[in-house]
Structure prediction request, 292 residues.
Amino acid sequence: MILCAVDGSRHTQMALDMVHHALARPGETVGLVHVIDLNRFRPIKGMPQTATRALEKALGVAERHGRDLLDRAGALLTQEGLQVETSLVRGYPAEALTRIAARRKADLIVLGSRGLTDVRSFLLGSVSRHVVMAAPCPVLVVKKRVPAFERIIVGVDGSKRSRSVVKCLLNLPLPDLARITVVSVVPPLPIEAGAGVSDAALLAPVLAPLKKEAGRVADEAAAPIEQAGFEVTTMVLHGNPSHEIVKLAEAKRADLVVVGSRGLTGNSRFLLGSVSDGVVRYAPCTVLVVRR
Prediction:
């Protein structure tokens, strides 16, 4: 099942379009979820009774609006031969989405990078970011409209979770002409921060085996992609992994970047303080974060 968040914003309309045109196969089940954000309807201490009643009426209006959004989105997808299930829930958006995804055993969550309740400066510091952090399945954060994922960047690092990135990618209905670049990034060494130009010769013997291993990891990840019949190339880069992946996505005008939620050097406490966080925040295109 694909689970898609619906709130009427431009970015969530992009997410719906992505499900409609690029992700869902005929007959597949799509769950549409609209969350009434209780943060927006929470009474303030000491609020007059008249204001409280007005807030309750506003909540009712929000629910009717939410049902209308779900009905319209559901009608569109049903016309395309998809099975649609809708949910209107009260709660806190990120918590509600992840809870429903777990209960329905969703295969993928799709949401826009910015919804109606998000403030631009806190993009991915609220709903999108928290969903990526807590989701029980891969999450697709949609940033722009594309008819299909034709130019794809896949970041790998050799971890078990990173290897599952390729499997998740190949489960998507990719176009036959998709061009995929598999990249493995060698992070800066701790000693590089204070190293000068004259130290390059000393660093080279240390970096050489790391780059060789990164190349092996990229080749290993690329093998099943090539076997599936797609055009694939590999790259080894050196630098901050999220920065390098984002720069590569910009240079190649990527439609999609795929990364794991945590690499070999990751830690669940710092899950989104590293590679996946940086990529989701700054990539110029849609990002798929694989969490299993």
The longest strand covers residues 29-37. The radius of gyration is 21 Å. DSSP finds eight helices and ten strands in the chain. Residues 116-125, 263-273 have pLDDT under 50 and may be disordered.
